[in-house]
Amino acid sequence: MSAHSFSESDVTLPTGVVRVRSGGEGRPVVHLHSAAGPRHSPLVEMLADHHAVHQPYAPGFDGMPLHKGVSGMEALADVMAAFIRQTCGKCDLVGESFGGWLALWIAAKHPDLVGQLVLEAPAGLRADNKGGLPAEFEARQRALYAQPARAPVEKRSDAQQMANRKATLTYTQGLAFDDALAAHLPGIKARTLILMGTQDTIIPAETGHLLKGSIPQSHLTYIHGAAHALEFDQPKRVGALALDFLDRGESFLVREKTSAIS
Length: 262
Prior knowledge:
Layout: E1 7-13, E2 16-23, E3 28-32, H1 42-48, E4 52-56, H2 73-87, E5 91-96, H3 98-109, E6 114-120, H4 137-144, H5 158-172, H6 179-184, E7 191-197, H7 205-214, E8 218-223, H8 230-233, H9 235-248, E9 259-260
């Protein structure tokens, strides 16, 4: 893995402006961030070794304005679909937590834009309100990172973090389980890799089972020793699986419902 130069630019869409960080070369991959907002993870660097990586900021995150009339995950998916159509034409999608929820909606509603789909502990499908993010800071950090030393240093102000949380609520509307999305899962055509952490208490194991049982062309595997923030907790394991899946196409094989080992 080598360090890549990423640059920022603004893309003007009918609903407003979307900021994007881009780097690397090759077949395009759009990386959709978690509710924490856009972060430059080791996985993003690994992806950029093989692909042109685009990291759009969801409107409302990290200082970007919300788009008028855009609320709910389905509406946000339409915005990101317009972004993909304008910048890539078609791409592979990698979605982290909140971004995985968003990626599922894009794949369900705009199948012509999505080649392959990698989901990292996607939010939005927590049946019976299981799991969830703890409110207390120390408990939240333990739930996010099984390896605390690998947690990224937070450089955003408290005000910006609060704004990101407000933007998250604008889209998720407090839903633990998105019934409308669940109904669309069987229609997803993209080949899909579902990654779950063996120590994840935020997104329950049932979510992985639901996705595997509902998406026709899907693989489910577990990242041993990882909590919820897979990209930071176990970046090498996540990167190896994600790149193998994206680069090998239909020849990718992973024994389902097993732990990934280094």
